[in-house]
Amino acid sequence: MNKVGLTRLGLITAFIVLLEALCRTGLVKPLTLVAPSRMVSELWELIQAGEVGEDAAHTTIEVGGAFILAVFAGVLLGAIIHATPRLRRATAPVLASWYAVPSFVFYPLLIALLGLSEAPLIAIGTLSAAPAMVIATISGLDRVPRVLRKTARMHRMGFWDTLRFITLPSALPSLFAGVKLAFAYAFIGVIAGEFILSGGGLGYSIAYAYESFETPKMYALMLLVLGVGVAVNATLHIWEGRLLRRRQR
Fold first, then answer.
1. Taking 80 as the threshold, does the pLDDT of residue 2 lie above it?
2. Can you name the CATH fold of 34-248?
3. Domain coordinates of the chain in residue numbers?
4. Are residues 1 and 9 in contact, defined by beta-carbon separation less than 8 angstroms?
5. 84: helix, coil or strand?
6. Integer Cα distance of 175 and 138 in angstroms
7. Maximum C-alpha span of the chain
8. 78, 167 contact by CB (below 8 A)
């Protein structure tokens, strides 16, 4: 582990120890915050009792569906917009201001169109994540050097060969940044939607525990959500590093 990693680990450890001390000494009341060790033990008890599996599966389906749809739709729309200058000029203000409008305002319309199911929350997650993927795709395609495109045409390379050997390697850094943002926005959109709009999922369980004054359970589920988000983002980061190293060979 390098110095940056050790510093990061040290700061996280110090923060956890500080929280543990504040909670154990009574400086922070249990109704406000429980000790990190209590969060872990409570989460383990919930897992053993089988109280997490159904909600976790519910959230996984929604986040996974939103993420996959956002990535594929974002790449497709980004490529279309990049290839159509007029469409790009028309959509630029919309993409720039998209996150000024909360996706939840579309929930009544989505219920009317999709019914009372997981589909509206998947749609909200997709609407939250897709614009980031569109922007990343456009940015990545902008970075493909024109000289390489001309070289591909001179050598009469087909569409798939051009995509494999020129377009994707050049656009890969931006595309992967878009993938990471798409997951983050899909995850946030779905969890937040479950808080206020759903009858199931981890977000709903956290909100229910809060309203029922089950503070240890609430923080245990929050720890689970935090852990999943960090784990997936770390996995994507490692994957990105490996792909970029292969690209540089």
1. no
2. MetI-like fold (1.10.3720)
3. 1-31, 34-248
4. yes
5. coil
6. 9
7. 73
8. no
* Residue range 87-122, pLDDT digits in tens: 989 888 888 888 777 777 777 777 777 777 788 889
Contact status, residue 212 vs residue 65, Cβ threshold 8 Å: no
How many CA atoms within 13 Å lie on the side-chain side of 104? 12
Cβ burial of 3 (10 Å; 0-12, 13-18, 19+) is exposed
Digit-coded pLDDT (tens) for 157-213: 777 777 777 777 778 888 888 999 999 999 998 998 888 776 778 888 999 898 888
Cβ–Cβ < 8 Å for 104, 196:
yes
Identity of the amino acid at 12: I
How far is Cα of residue 246 from the mean position of the Cα atoms in its chain? 25
Cα 90 to Cα 97: distance, rounded to the nearest angstrom: 13
Q: pLDDT band for position 41 (50/70/90)?
A: very high
Measured in residues, the chain has a length of 249
